[in-house]
Amino acid sequence: MTVPCVRVPREDGEATRQALAEVGVVDQRHEITHEDGQLYIPVSDPDRVPEGYPVVDYDAPERELQTTPDELVDFSASYERLGEVIIIDEDDPDRARALADAIVDSDLPVKTVLNRASKIRGEQRVRDWEILVGEETEAVHREYGCEFALDLAAVYFSPRLATERHRVVEQIGDDEQVLDMFAGVGPFTIPAAKRGAAAVGVDINETAIEYLRENAERNGVSERVTAICGDVREVAGEYEGWADRLVMNLPHSADEFVETAVRLAGEECVVHYYDIEPEDDLFGAGERAIREAAEPEYEVTVRNRHTVRSYAPHEYNVVLDIELSRA
Questions:
Q1: CA gap 113, 197 in Å, rounded
Q2: Where in the chain is the domain with CATH 3.30.70.2580?
Q3: What is the pTM of this model?
Q4: pLDDT value of position 315
Q5: CATH 3.40.50.150 in the chain, residues?
Q6: Are residues 243 and 266 in contact, defined by beta-carbon separation less than 8 angstroms?
Q7: How confident is the model over 296-306, as a mean pLDDT?
Q8: What keywords would UniProt list here (predicted)?
Q9: From 3.30.390.10, 3.40.50.10240, 3.30.70.2580, 1.20.1440.230, which CATH number describes the 3-58 domain?
Q10: Which residues, listed in sequence order, are joined to residue 38 by a DSSP beta bridge?
Q11: CA angle, corner 300, sides to 298 and 304, nearest 5?
């Protein structure tokens, strides 16, 4: 008997599964199946599948249900996975302990359970963690055919942005020159290089840059990746007028770097500008900042205005895809 499934290339499977799990439509009653390089992920409600994922009917076998954390606690279990590191976000210590125990007792592969203990802070963009299970904060995360090593205690990384990163990377041509102004461990830089682009990643966090270099090696793209530790405003002179595409993923502070972005932009350049804005004016502040910095030297065209995710009550993480064309 056929059931509705999202069909994606096998290398995109884990990131797609995470995106579907975020909206609660993964059908746990049937097996995820691969055939001819395609992965078929059963879904419980095709109407709730996010736009862009093809839904087909497929004869997915029924599964022997594994034990999940939800079955072992009396509240809704919310968690994220980075390889065998499980991240939870519980303020109540009793709930945190119960959920950590349930994760260990479930059939999830796990070596560490971490509970968020602070907000992201400082120019290094790191947070504190409470280690509930295990000892390590290092993880190996797989996303759309790429593999990323990282230490959550020392660098910033969000698995929730996998779909958004893939959206951007899908636009990159094999002859492009791409510069990620706040690169972290390389979740934009590495897949850009895998598509054939010359990719430069800059970050002020020295540990993140060390992981970026390691991840370039892991993914076989070290010859196309340049990793630079420093403030992008201070190294911009080396790449002035160089970039065909800029990634500005530094919400809350990206507006401080728009003049640097204009310096880096080539004759034609696409800028992916990320921000956190209130719901009553999601895109106005970012567009105004870029126009003020770029015009009249560049003609500014907004290609896309996109809400990435909810960030806080009445606030959203948004992105502007903006094309700069030298006037």
A1: 36
A2: 3-58
A3: 0.80
A4: 93
A5: 158-326
A6: yes
A7: 96
A8: Cytoplasm, Methyltransferase, S-adenosyl-L-methionine, Transferase, tRNA processing
A9: 3.30.70.2580
A10: 9, 35
A11: 150
What single-letter amino acid sits at 47?
D
Contact present, 270 and 171 (Cβ < 8 Å): yes
* Residue 23 one-letter amino acid: V
**CB atoms < 10 A from the CB of 118, how many?**
10
User: How confident is the model over 23-67, as pLDDT tens digits?
Assistant: 778 888 888 999 999 999 999 888 888 888 999 999 999 887 678
Report yes or no: 189 and 212 within 8 Å, Cβ to Cβ.
Answer: yes
Rounded mean pLDDT, 268-286: 95
pLDDT at 286 over 70: yes
Q: Which CATH architecture has domain 69-136?
A: 2-Layer Sandwich (3.30)
Bridge partners of 288?
Answer: none
Q: Which fold has domain 158-326?
A: Rossmann fold (3.40.50)
Nearest to 22 by CA among 158, 206, 131: 158
Q: Distances from the Cα of 119 to the Cαs of 77, 115, 130, 251, in angstroms? A: 21, 12, 12, 14
At 203, which amino acid appears? D
Q: Can you tell me the distance from the alpha carbon of 55 to that of 77, in angstroms, rounded to the nearest whole number? A: 27
Number of H helices, E strands in the chain: 8, 17
Nearest to 188 by CA among 269, 250, 123: 250
